[in-house]
Write a structure and sequence with these properties.
- This protein has 260 residues and is α/β, with parallel strands linked by helices.
- The protein is 30% helix and 18% strand.
- It contains six helices and eight strands.
- Strand 7 and strand 8 form a beta hairpin.
- Bound molecules: flavin mononucleotide.
- Flavin mononucleotide binds next to strand 1 and strand 3.
- The site of flavin mononucleotide (FMN) has 15 residues, from strand 1 and strand 3.
Length: 260
């Protein structure tokens, strides 16, 4: 953040200081501009992002994924998914730290997907090693790299240096193979493994419309989810009947003083 320049105002929000409750899956926030009605700090956080020109999203790796508050936040994004054009011009970088070489799991991708579901303009992401608190600061190369990324937040010319074998659309290096094609599990971009002599390489076929493009977003959030919501409303009595036997089982338990 310092690398963006002294004139820029900076704010740090620690997600674990906020009260971000679990999404209830009620879909009432699906129409554009209807905020989530759960009373907590989500709208405070979104307002701080609305007020920002650039966002840094960061998390340590915990058990191969991001710290849990990232997922709690991401689960609440239905409320902004129909109106997130407002975030499209805000540059973003994501930063993760992990303690053990090559044991970072899906942490970086989880942060990148969070930024992409918000429709932030993700310009780069980086994963840095440091097991103990502040250990990551010990290596000057880490600081050099992260400052370069930070300067990118305010540099329209900044381009991520592509890494070999990563999805060219969302930069995932976690890929699925169905026996024929390689598929990015995040944006859906397809590719294949080409073998030439002793060499095998990944070739991707990016499409203009993928899960995170404006059209991909419209298809999922406007078309698919709205259609499912209408279907659910029409069939809700039937679904209630299907559900009732499971709800009335006396196997449900909760801690004393806590009603389900
Ligand atoms: C609960 C927990 C789980 C962790 N899981 C992993 C892991 O799966 N892989 C890894 O490389 N480091 C793991 N670590 C190490 C942290 O990623 C590391 O301590 C952290 O990135 C240091 O940065 P911090 O001071 O910002 O937390 C874990 C640490 C904790 C506390």
């Amino acid at each position: 953040m310092e690398a963006t320049g002294a004139d820029n105002q900076k704010e740090i929000i620690r997600l674990t200081d906020l009260d971000i409750k679990a999404c209830k899956g009620c879909y009432s926030c699906l129409p554009p501009d209807v905020p989530c009605h759960i009373k907590d700090d989500l709208n405070y956080l979104l307002d701080r992002i609305r007020a920002a020109d650039a966002v840094v999203l960061a998390s340590p790796c915990y058990f191969l994924g991001p710290q849990g508050s990232i997922k709690m936040l991401q689960d609440r994004f239905l409320s902004i998914s129909n109106s997130c054009r407002e975030f499209a011009n805000k540059t973003c970088i994501t930063i993760t730290t992990h303690g053990v070489p090559n044991v970072m799991g899906y942490t970086e991708m989880a942060l990148n997907v969070t930024a992409r579901f918000m429709n932030l303009k993700l310009i780069d992401s980086g994963s840095f090693i440091g097991a103990s608190p502040a250990e990551v600061l010990e290596d000057p190369k880490n600081l050099e790299k992260v400052r370069q990324m930070g300067r990118g937040l305010v540099d329209p010319e900044y381009r991520r240096i592509p890494k070999a074998g990563e999805c060219p659309v969302c930069w995932s290096d976690i890929l699925r193979y169905d026996g024929t094609s390689v598929i990015c599990p995040f944006c859906g971009t397809k590719g294949e493994i080409k073998v030439e002599g002793q060499e095998a390489r990944l070739v991707f076929y990016p499409q203009a419309d993928h899960r995170f493009s404006d059209e991909g977003r419209r298809q999922h959030f406007d078309e698919f989810l709205n259609r499912k919501k209408q279907e659910f409303i029409a069939k809700r009595h039937f679904y209630k009947e299907l559900q009732t036997p499971y709800l009335s089982m006396d196997w449900w338990i909760s801690p004393p003083g806590n009603s389900r």
